[in-house]
């Protein structure tokens, strides 16, 4: 251990797509009082410049990305490494790195962050300051001499109040982490656990005060399922939801606005009841709700583990419209085992919901790492289905990036084949 702590510079490859997660990590460093220099690189060149410019003893470079971006980010890492002469310790975190640490290490990163990053980043920067072995840091995958990803002990899944969503920055407030549902296409339960962890109302209010103190007036939330706030189980606890919304309103100035159940979050269809809608109408500023339907086929919904069939979807759209919300309804086409008949049922339901006043947000199934369907074959989406989605989009009834996602799906399937599940996994004792 050095007599004096080594100076550590944290350089972030700062991308819009991942700012929320990065802000949480930086907030964890600030909250834990960990000394560090911080530099944000918004391009590869700027990131390399920061790596070269710092006079710190150690340079830790943070990367985070979703699975569809993994290939592009690996190319960028190579460019940054070349531009900065190989200086810096590069770590990739987030859901892709958690699911595919071996691939991340093979792609050139020095470390992969596994799981929730707050306690890992705090321990990692401290270990660099004290020149301690990185095997003492929880939640890492490190290459051994054979190139195999060795895992350190798991990072803890702490109560959400342990760290703020942001500190000295802004963004949506994360009110719930983890998800008790088991949708087989979704990375959330794998990454954050199968139980809800809710931020306390007091902590949410403190976040709102911080935003208001910096002159901001709009509040948004991150949660897997908005109306589950405060509830441990499948049924909403509307008393807790009202306590949250009323508390937030009290912290806001009169012209302040609360957005709940809309971007970047959504609601489950069976939670959309007249009582819930009346409650939201009293507090929220959003005129739309994002509702997850995913399929018009009860058979596909059952196979995907959604925990509901199509009937609450129709009810949710009708009830939301009756209460003055425009529903944006998520659909996924090409889920494993989906037949042409199932797709026809989805198109029929999408058309019916559009008639009721909904907009359809269309997605193509992607076999995402870490999910139960990582290795599943996407169902074929014939031209006729694509054309029908285009027709809905041209009428203004649908939107989404389903064509791009189909390309991502093909690339993810290639990665899954190259890295068979649970291959070459070892654990350190560190
Ligand atoms: S899709 Fe939504 S409800 Fe389903 S597991 Fe993911 S976060 Fe939970």
Automatic annotation (TrEMBL):
- Give the required cofactors: [4Fe-4S] cluster
**Limits of the Radical SAM core domain:** 165-404
Which InterPro entries does this one have? BchE-like (IPR051198), CHP04013_B12-bd/rSAM (IPR023980), Cobalamin-bd (IPR006158), Elp3/MiaA/NifB-like_rSAM (IPR006638), rSAM (IPR007197), rSAM_horseshoe (IPR023404), rSAM_sf (IPR058240), TonB_C (IPR037682)
Work out whether the entry's keyword set contains Phosphoprotein: no
Q: Could you tell me which CDD domains the record lists for this protein?
A: Radical_SAM (cd01335)
Q: Which residues form the B12-binding domain?
A: 2-135
Indicate the segments forming the TonB C-terminal domain, all copies.
404-430
Q: Which GO terms describe its molecular function?
A: catalytic activity; cobalamin binding; iron-sulfur cluster binding; metal ion binding
- Gene Ontology biological-process entries: transmembrane transport
Q: Which UniProt keywords apply?
A: Iron, Iron-sulfur, Metal-binding, S-adenosyl-L-methionine
Q: What name does UniProt use for this protein?
A: TIGR04013 family B12-binding domain/radical SAM domain-containing protein
């Amino acid at each position: 251990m050095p007599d004096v702590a080594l100076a550590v510079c944290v350089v972030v490859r700062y991308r819009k797509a991942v700012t929320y997660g990065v802000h949480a990590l930086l907030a964890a460093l600030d909250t834990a009082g960990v000394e560090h220099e911080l530099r944000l690189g918004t391009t590869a060149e700027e990131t390399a410049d920061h790596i070269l410019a710092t006079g710190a003893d150690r340079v830790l470079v943070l990367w985070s990305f979703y699975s569809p971006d993994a290939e592009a980010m690996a190319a960028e890492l190579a460019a940054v490494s070349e531009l900065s002469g190989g200086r810096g310790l590069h770590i990739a975190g987030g859901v892709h790195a958690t699911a595919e640490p071996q691939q991340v290490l093979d792609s050139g990163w020095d470390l992969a962050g596994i799981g929730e990053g707050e306690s890992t980043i705090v321990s990692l920067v401290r270990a660099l300051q004290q020149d301690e072995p990185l095997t003492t840091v929880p939640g890492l995958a490190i290459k051994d001499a054979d190139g195999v990803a060795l895992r350190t002990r798991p990072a803890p899944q702490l109560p959400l109040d342990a760290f703020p969503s942001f500190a000295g920055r802004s963004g949506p407030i994360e009110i719930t982490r983890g998800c008790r549902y088991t949708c087989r296409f979704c990375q959330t339960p794998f990454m954050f656990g199968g139980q809800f962890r809710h931020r306390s109302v007091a902590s949410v209010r403190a976040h709102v005060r911080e935003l208001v103190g910096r002159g901001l007036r709009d509040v948004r939330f991150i949660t897997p399922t908005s109306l589950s706030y405060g509830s441990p189980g499948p049924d909403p606890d509307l008393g807790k939801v009202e306590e949250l919304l009323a508390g937030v309103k009290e912290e806001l100035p009169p012209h302040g606005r609360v957005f709940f159940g809309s971007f970047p979050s959504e609601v489950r269809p069976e939670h959309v009841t007249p009582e819930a809608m009346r409650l939201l109408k009293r507090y929220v500023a959003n005129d739309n709700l994002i509702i997850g339907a995913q399929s018009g086929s009860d058979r596909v919904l059952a196979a995907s583990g959604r925990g509901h069939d199509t009937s609450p979807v129709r009810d949710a759209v009708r009830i939301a419209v009756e209460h003055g919300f425009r529903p944006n309804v998520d659909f996924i086409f090409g889920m494993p085992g989906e037949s042409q008949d199932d797709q026809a049922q989805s198109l029929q339901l999408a058309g019916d919901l559009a008639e009721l006043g909904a907009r359809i947000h269309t997605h193509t199934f992607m076999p995402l790492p870490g999910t139960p369907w990582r290795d599943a074959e996407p169902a074929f989406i014939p031209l006729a289905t694509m054309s029908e989605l285009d027709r809905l989009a041209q009428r203004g009834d649908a939107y989404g990036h389903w064509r791009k996602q189909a390309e991502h799906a093909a690339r993810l399937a290639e990665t899954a084949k190259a890295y068979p599940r649970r291959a070459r996994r070892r654990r350190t004792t560190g």
